[in-house]
Amino acid sequence: MSTALSVNLNKIALLRNSREGNYPNVVTFAQQSIDAGVQGITVHPRPDQRHIRPSDVKQLTELLKQHPGVEFNIEGNPFAGPQGNYPGFMALIDSARPHQATLVPDSDEQLTSDHGFDVFHHGERLLPIIEQLKQWNIRISLFMDPDIQQIKQAKSLSIDRIELYTGPYAKHFGSDQQEQSLASYREAALYAQQIGLEVNAGHDLNLENLGDFLSISNIAEVSIGHALTVDALHIGYKNAVYSYSKICKVA
Fold first, then answer.
1. Helix axes 89-96, 119-135, angle to 10 degrees
2. Where is the active site (predicted)?
């Protein structure tokens, strides 16, 4: 099976939020991603609204109604409640009804997601949230480390997928620990699939390390945003400078 690519738009929103106004427009970049053939759009709205805002979720929900073949994946801490005009994670999910909700144990203090759920500690608290998502017919993915015992416990929560946190793999890529790290992810993914869980992956995957990671069979989806945005700058920056220089030369 081929792996679906879901483009994370957080960094587009972060750039927009550095100034007043709506430039760059998150919806415009979602449409460009769709035009380029992606299978999904991902956002991770946080209570501090450092990048994706509730208004972005609403606008993207409307956009994706026009593209039924493209999935909407909303990531976030399922325990995050209302804060300012952030309505809370579950309220956002209720309003958007995305194809997939990826539950991530990040806190307001974290710069970015950096670990998976400890299901032994949080599993009971997750149960009513999972039940509600099931009632809304939303696929449930749990952000996980490549830990066999944690994945085994996660299966008991009746989720649909796990998303393997690939930060450590990316960190070790190109080092003498690369093969050992990749082997741990391969073992975790295979185990998850054997017990009936589909497997997504995300965090710090890029053009250099993605191909090797996808040597792991049957990864359902990868979510990529930060590296994709940086790569877009590398690929297109010189052409943008040329275009501005051309205008200045003829002025």
1. 30
2. 44 (proton acceptor), 75 (proton acceptor), 203 (proton donor)
